[in-house]
Amino acid sequence: MGRQRGAGLGGGNDEREQTLNQLLVQMDGFDTTDKIIIMAATNRADILDPALLRPGRFDRQIYVNIPDVKGREAIFRVHSRNKPISPDVDFKNLARLTSGFSGADIANLLNEAAILAARHDRKMILMVDILEGINKVIAGPQKKSRIITESDKRITAYHESGHAIVGRCMKHCDAVQEVSIIPRGMAAGYTLSRPKNDNSHVTKNRLNDEIAMMLGGRAAEEIVIQDISTGASNDIKRATELARKMVCEWGMSERLPNLFFGGDQEVFIGRDYQTQNSYSDDVAAIIDEEIKKIIDENYARALACLNEHRDVLDQMVKLLFERETIYGDEVDMLMEKKPLDEINAYIDDKLNRQKDAQKKPEPIIQPVFESAETRIVPEEPKSDEPTEPKDDDKKDDGSDPMGPTDPIDPLF
Known about the structure:
Layout: H1 15-28, H2 69-79, H3 91-97, H4 103-119, H5 127-139, H6 150-169, E1 176-180, E2 190-193, H7 204-214, H8 216-225, H9 233-248, H10 281-308, H11 310-323, E3 325-327, H12 328-335, H13 340-358
Antiparallel strand pairs: 1-2, 1-3
Helix pairs in contact: 2-3, 2-4, 4-5, 6-7, 6-8, 6-11, 7-9, 7-10, 8-10, 9-10
């Protein structure tokens, strides 16, 4: 309703603009003694009508950002109140693993974890259920029933191994959390790396390392398969977008440093319809060259890293063929050149411990009279003569406050 007026290609007498005009007029009539506060929310503050933001109208703006690690921990506790959570669930660790999640994402992953626990006939939500819920929110549900050819499986295994090894070698990349060749969502496989903190500033070295990690899958295909596939389409798209932002928005180019050439914000028809670039064709050509230079240099770094660790690449592919999914500790063991037998034994031991934790506790039945002593207490003979009431039982006035009572039937 508060969208900028005159934004359409037609006339300006539509119902929405009339409603906005009436709102502006009514807001001008408020006095300081009216005790009226008007609040509104939007996700597109850039397209609001300027008249709405003038003093006396919506002149106080509060930005609601994504929660930090403490906020996510508190949100986890709020949304888990009505759910049976296992004592082994660590909310601090979950808050660290869910960097960038909103409150709705956290509520969604807890619901997914509850569904997974119900599918496995468990009465409590375990840590493994919540971790799988996180992956489901990030990458979508697993598709274990999907039929995969051996050729596709081999390409996916080398592709994801390339991501993991390059990410492990790069100094400024986040730690690799999980590598899998099980299809999830639209992806044939995935490599997850989660940040350790909520840093809001990103350095140039880290951006270059992230681009190298994105191109690690394509580099592994070129080294081993001697060919390239369409599986790296999303990696190339994200790497190119990141390189363009480095050149055009963040001034991280060597030939065009400290300059802004416009971002990739959404075009608002009516305001941006006839806007033109503020740089010449020669500068546009330099921008394209700088973007290509960033991509080529980081691709060369990925190739060099994988050629150096070619034996680790083959070992990781063998392990993925056996296990389909490995985690950060197994990736570290592979990088340390440990044999596959030792890694498989470690995985088996970890799975056994998880199965023991997931077992339903059996009811503990103890004999009721296990510690009771058998004693015979002789009963004293009853006398037929009525006994005199004690002094404490006598009433002061000699009357029963409840009135006369009927004799009690012994059957009842």
